[in-house]
TrEMBL record, chain A:
It comes from the Eukaryota. This is SUMO-activating enzyme subunit. It holds the Pfam family UAE_UbL. Residues 482-566 form the Ubiquitin/SUMO-activating enzyme ubiquitin-like domain. Residues 13-471 form the THIF-type NAD/FAD binding fold domain. Pathway: Protein modification; protein sumoylation. One of its GO terms (biological process) is protein sumoylation.
UniProtKB/TrEMBL annotation, chain B:
This is NEDD8-activating enzyme E1 regulatory subunit. InterPro entries: APP-BP1, ThiF/MoeB/HesA, ThiF_NAD_FAD-bd, Ubiquitin-activating_enz. Pathway: Protein modification; protein neddylation. One of its GO terms (molecular function) is NEDD8 activating enzyme activity. It comes from Capsaspora owczarzaki (strain ATCC 30864).
Length: 654, 538
């Protein structure tokens, strides 16, 4: 049965596939030009399955490079590939297997202009193997514009999902709004943390303040503008002003106690990132500033400065048991002294790294100042955040947490394993084959559950939903209503946080009547950026027309003025967030999720696994959350705990 | 930094994303596992790939075949240059490259001769996996695994069809990771610390913020106690009672200056979750069944820690627990001020710790009586066991050899039940057994040659009909077109189906090895034509 004739093996290789799928379909597979977006967890499996199912024309796009934490599942990569582009290594590995296959790779962001509508139009099929909503939204729009069928997918731990999107025939990726990212109230983070997550967020902010992109959004210093600190008589008007503006006002008036952003970075530079002085400032002096805001502590346990804590603690070790009792140092809660030491040493090493980066940038003649970006898989950065957060937890009498759990929280990590990706990639190819047979009617959205449901099903296929006629992307004339404070939001903010941030545009042009208010041409309308919307004539009930040429996307936005928003929101897009979504679009699925009320969450795969997205802080499941950080697993809703949007985020299909 | 801690760090990094699913104890179990794979088929190598990547201890491939052109076509780990070489060796070498922490071994001796001459060869394995075996060999491997007490997973890709079968003697799961466990709140049986917490809450506060941030559990408990006091000690029973109970909470909202009721999210939550007030704390039936297991009454020095702990749990229930399991100690999210929320959380946690201590005392007493060292069960083990007490599971998946030997009435009933649905994937269970009967007589599978598809349909149908008769199932239960499909498949193994099956099988293998999550019991069928599946106990 075995043959040694290599001239024969080509025939053997295809024989089984062509026989089972049929000669005509096999011919289509051979001729099909396929785009695979993402070469991470799902991507590695998918590329293998494509090549072994007879696909020969595949283009792979991925912007990431390979990291160690990918290697437990992204099997096309090995240790020697760490640091290399995923798209390149994946394409090379697959090509080596089948030299006849024409696999082209681009180590690039799929949102780049080079990947135009015409470029998308050359493909018979687009397969997403992505890890974030923003890129999924973009590819969705490009496929709608070019009218190319799209297979969308995601995995999270043991859960997975595959679905098909076809212009005009099915729901598009954006027909069901995803919940917007939520924020922690500024005052809770800066003044009155009560849960580990508040301190973790503070620690990440602190990293950015000291080494990264420091801006008002991540100020960590005591906020004397806290309305609560002003007492019961705080005027209502003040609470409507968002914390940032109030703070800016105050910081000029009272910069001694209300250090603004520039001053923390400036302070650190002035003190040459001196470790002891930084500890003294953050965990002693700033805490004393907070203590002076005595109204905050009438109903709360006041914080205790670190120096007092260190005096009180006998040996600084934690009572959680000796280090040797756990296998991984990661899973041991550090003592107070250890935290201080780790904070000091990681601070110094990060400062050192920053100065090296700056020297490098200066040497290369770059005009931009070098900064460090926070990455959960960067051990030093993670050490710093763990230590800073734990010191703050100690100051505020919050139970400490180990580095492993801190990383879950700080990185919004969704677990990822090879098995789920393998199943999902296989299901993608099954859907791809149906599309190539023009059998859209039998395409399905398939959900992979963790264990059989009550009807003993682990794979749950459901019929595809029809397009949502009110979708702000795929409707014939897309429209959306946005509530915003037109007096305080500038055009520049509207561009960044609403048009690009929430509505997923790349390079929008915005018109009101015949006036061009915002142009995607660099520089053309910069003069408008700092102006409030109302001063540009966008007031209550103004309609503006926005167009993104790259995405071939046109949208009419009705702007409604609103003074105040919940929590720290700056705007509300109707149908998303607090306003209930139109009822029409719940898929008539047999509630297949393991926990019917939980959102079906799919994820990532690609590089850093995943991430954020909606309302849960992702920790180890249910009963397995470790004991010593109890508050973490159960989050106090009042605080609207939520993970600030990380670089990667995740999706929810609902 | 010592080299040992460097290794730990390297592993932590590499395995980070999976440690979040099964923890470091799950990882340790994986790293000490020895997995045996029969047949380095596409399905087999996909399974091993998914086990080598997360870092099992070692694997051994048993395969006497040489690499063929068809192998190269469906197996990512084989290329044209390997044709004619030992499949066991080539596959092992390539899998080994995926993770240098894993030790790979191969055996070229035919399976038949190992089974005939060297059954002891199999003894060291933690888990046996066989791929692409037909019924007859499956039954033989099954018997060996029963004899040696090794869990066994059989996997098969056949055209667009997939089959998975688990056989396991007694599989005890402490961490079953239930999807959405009921909260264990004990409002019906409040413990003293909870009552004293309640007393400290000022329900009459004039402070609107304070009133709107009383944890809803406290509101529920207060109203429940008041209700019971005025209803002869009984909780709300009828739906009228329950409506009235909710109305009482409604009336407890603060009255604003304009005379209207304040909108208070905590009261909304109390009303929404009012069922928690009359929820009766009890022991789940699965756990009561475990208490009745003969292993519990007959502890010996060779009893497993699991059964010693189940016995201790029963002792706790009958003594300190006053009829209830140890308190789990977690509470749901709620609109509340942090301080009172955290104190409430603390009340539950302290009670849970107290229960763990009482349980652990029972464990120590039993260990001492059995003459076992106290370290046999660590305090951490005891704590984990208590936290998971309502979710303990014991799975027994019966031997494949028994299933194949004769049709029991249970098997007949199960098949009849499922085959009433003409589209059930269970039809492929019958069809796979029928193609094996065909194979035994013809020495090849139906449709194995391109020109044999049509001519094999009629004979295969005869086997299907005969088998259905033997199994006591209606002869019309299998659609004619499925018989055609089976012939068209010609027993070919498609990579894409192998990939899906490989993913599903390795997922179950991880569950078995880590003893976390509940493995399926005991047969899984996948239909790649429709992307549907079924799990049945056969």
């Amino acid at each position: 049965m075995a043959t040694t004739s290599s001239s024969n093996h080509g025939a053997d290789r295809s024989a089984a596939v062509s026989r089972i799928v049929g000669d005509d379909v096999y011919a289509r597979i051979k001729a099909a030009k396929v785009l695979m977006v993402g070469a991470g967890g799902i991507g590695c499996e998918l590329l293998k399955n494509l090549v072994l199912s007879g696909f020969v024309n595949v283009v792979v796009v991925d912007l990431d490079t390979i990291e160690v934490s990918n290697l437990n599942r992204q099997f096309l990569f090995q240790r020697q590939h760490v640091g290399l582009p995923k798209a390149q290594v994946a394409a090379d590995s697959a090509r080596r297997f089948n030299p006849q296959a024409n696999i082209v790779f681009h180590h690039a962001n799929i949102k780049n202009k080079e990947f135009s509508q015409e470029w998308f139009g050359q493909f018979d099929l687009v397969l997403n193997a992505l890890d974030n909503v923003s890129a999924r939204n973009h590819v969705n729009r490009m496929c709608l514009a070019a009218d190319v069928p799209l297979v969308e997918s995601g995995t999270a731990g043991y859960l997975g999902q595959v679905t098909v999107i076809k212009k005009g025939a099915t729901e598009c990726f954006e027909c069901t709004p995803k919940p917007p990212p939520k924020q922690h109230p500024v005052c809770t983070i800066r003044n009155t943390p009560s849960l580990p997550i508040h301190c973790i967020v503070w620690g990440k902010f602190l990293f950015n303040q000291l080494f990264g992109l420091a801006d008002d959004e991540n100020n960590i210093s005591p906020n004397t503008a806290d309305p609560e600190a002003a007492g019961d008589n705080a005027d209502a008007g003040r609470q409507d002003v968002d914390g940032r503006d109030a703070n800016a006002e105050l910081s000029s008036a009272d910069s001694a106690t209300n250090n603004n952003v520039q001053s923390l970075r400036a302070w650190a530079i002035e003190h040459q990132y001196h470790a002891d002085e930084t500890v003294q400032k953050l965990f002693v002096n700033d805490v004393k500033t907070l203590l002076r805001m005595d109204k905050l502590w009438r109903e709360r346990r006041p914080p205790v400065p670190l120096d007092t804590l260190l005096e009180q603690s006998t040996d600084g070790t934690n009572d959680d048991g000796p280090a040797s009792s756990t296998r991984l140092k990661d899973q041991r809660v550090w003592g107070l002294k250890e935290c201080t030491d780790v904070f000091r040493s990681s601070l110094s090493r990060l400062a050192q790294r920053l100065s090296e980066e700056q020297a490098k940038a200066a040497a290369s003649g770059s005009s931009e100042a070098a900064i460090l970006s926070w990455d959960k898989d960067d051990d030093l950065a993670m050490d710093f955040v763990t230590a800073a957060a734990n010191l703050r937890m100690s100051v505020f009498s919050i139970p400490n947490m180990c580095r492993f759990d801190a990383k879950s929280m700080a990185g919004n990590i969704i677990p990822a394993i090879a098995t789920t990706n393998a199943i999902v990639a296989g299901l993608i190819v099954l859907e791809a084959m149906k599309i190539l047979r023009d059998q859209f009617s039998i395409c399905r959205m398939t959900f992979l559950a963790r264990k059989p449901n009550s009807r003993m099903k682990v794979l749950l296929p459901t019929e595809l939903s029809k397009p949502n006629p009110n979708c702000h992307v795929c409707a014939a004339k897309p429209r959306v209503t946005v509530h915003v404070n037109t007096n305080t939001m500038t055009l520049g903010q509207f561009d960044e946080v609403v048009l690009k941030g929430r509505l997923g545009m790349i390079a929008p042009d915005m018109m009101e009547g015949n006036r061009i208010l915002l142009s995607s041409e660099p520089g053309e309308t910069d003069i408008n950026n700092p102006k409030a919307l109302s001063s540009l004539g966008i007031v209550h009930d103004t309609s503006v027309f926005v167009e993104d040429f790259h995405q071939s996307y046109e949208l009419t936005i009705r702007v409604l003025h609103r003074e105040a928003f919940e929590a720290d929101a700056q705007f509300v897009v109707e149908g998303q967030g607090s306003v209930p979504p139109p009822a029409a679009q719940a898929p008539a699925a047999p509630a297949p999720t393991p926990s019917a009320d939980r959102k079906r969450k799919a994820e990532d795969d690609s590089d850093a696994p995943a991430v954020v997205d909606d309302d849960d802080i992702v920790l180890m499941d249910d009963g397995s959350a470790s004991d010593h950080q109890p508050a973490a697993a159960h989050v106090n809703k009042k605080h609207r705990l939520e993970t600030p949007a990380d670089d990667e985020d995740d999706i929810v299909f609902e | 930094m010592t080299s040992a801690s460097m290794i730990v760090d390297r592993k932590t990094q590499r395995y980070d994303r999976q440690l979040r699913l099964w923890g470091d104890h799950g990882q340790a179990a994986l790293e000490s596992a020895r997995v045996c794979l029969i047949n380095g088929s596409a399905t087999g190598t996909e399974i091993l790939k998914n086990l080598v990547l997360p870092g099992i201890g070692s694997f051994t491939v048993i395969d006497s075949e040489k690499v063929s052109g068809a192998d190269v076509g469906n197996n990512f780990f084989l290329d044209a240059d390997s044709i004619g070489q030992s499949r066991a060796r080539v596959v092992t070498e390539l899998l080994q490259e995926l993770n240098t922490d894993v030790s790979g071994n191969f055996v070229e001796e035919p399976l038949q001769s190992l089974l005939d001459n060297d059954v002891e060869f199999f003894r060291p394995f933690t888990l046996m996996i066989a791929t692409q075996l037909s019924s007859k060999m499956l039954a033989r491997v099954s018997e060996v695994c029963v004899k040696l007490g090794i869990p066994f997973l059989a996997v098969r890709s056949y055209g667009l069809i997939g089959y998975l079968r688990l056989q396991i003697g007694e599989h005890c799961v402490i961490e079953s990771h239930p999807d959405s466990p009921m909260d264990d709140l004990r409002l019906d049986r409040p413990f003293p610390e909870l009552l004293s917490y309640l007393q400290q809450i000022d329900f009459n506060t004039q402070d609107g913020f304070q009133h709107a941030h009383i944890p809803f559990l406290a509101i529920l408990l207060k109203h429940l106690l008041e209700w019971k006091a005025s209803h002869g000690g009984l909780p709300p029973k009828t739906s009228k009672d329950k409506d009235e109970f909710r109305a009482e909470i409604q009336r407890a909202r603060r009255i604003k200056e304009d005379g209207s009721r304040a909108e208070e999210e905590n009261h909304d939550e109390a009303i929404t979750h009012a069922t928690k007030a009359w929820h009766v704390s009890s022991i789940p039936s699965e756990i009561s069944a475990l208490f009745a297991d003969s292993n519990v009454d007959n502890l010996t020095a060779t009893s497993s820690p699991f059964w010693i702990m189940v016995r201790s749990l029963r002792d706790f229930v009958m003594a300190e627990g006053e009829g209830l399991l140890p308190l789990r100690g977690s509470i749901p999210d709620m609109a509340a001020d942090s301080d009172r929320y955290i104190r409430l959380q603390h009340v539950y946690q302290e009670r849970a710790k107290h229960d763990v201590a009482a349980f652990t005392a029972h464990v120590h007493r039993h260990l001492a009586e059995l003459g076992l060292p106290l370290g046999t069960i660590s305090d951490d083990d005891a704590k984990t066991f208590c936290r998971n007490a309502p979710f303990l599971r014991v799975i027994r998946a019966r031997p494949i050899s028994d299933e194949l030997a004769s049709a029991t009435s249970k098997l007949t009933d199960t098949l009849n039940f499922h085959l009433e649905d003409p589209d059930s994937s269970v039809a492929f269970y019958v069809l796979l057994r029928a193609v094996d009967l065909f194979f035994e007589e013809h020495g090849r599978f139906p449709g194995a040659g391109d020109d044999q598809v049509e001519e094999d349909i009629a004979p295969l149908k005869q086997y299907v009909v005969g088998l259905l008769t033997d199994l006591g199932v209606s002869q019309h239960a299998i659609k004619e077109e499925l018989i055609h499909e089976m012939c068209r498949f010609g027993a070919a193994e498609l990579h894409n189906i192998a990939s899906i099956l490989g993913g599903l099988a390795s997922q179950e293998a991880v569950k078995v090895i880590t003893r976390q999550y509940i493995p399926f019991n005991n047969t899984f069928l996948f239909n790649g034509i429709t992307s549907t599946s079924s799990t049945v106990e056969l």
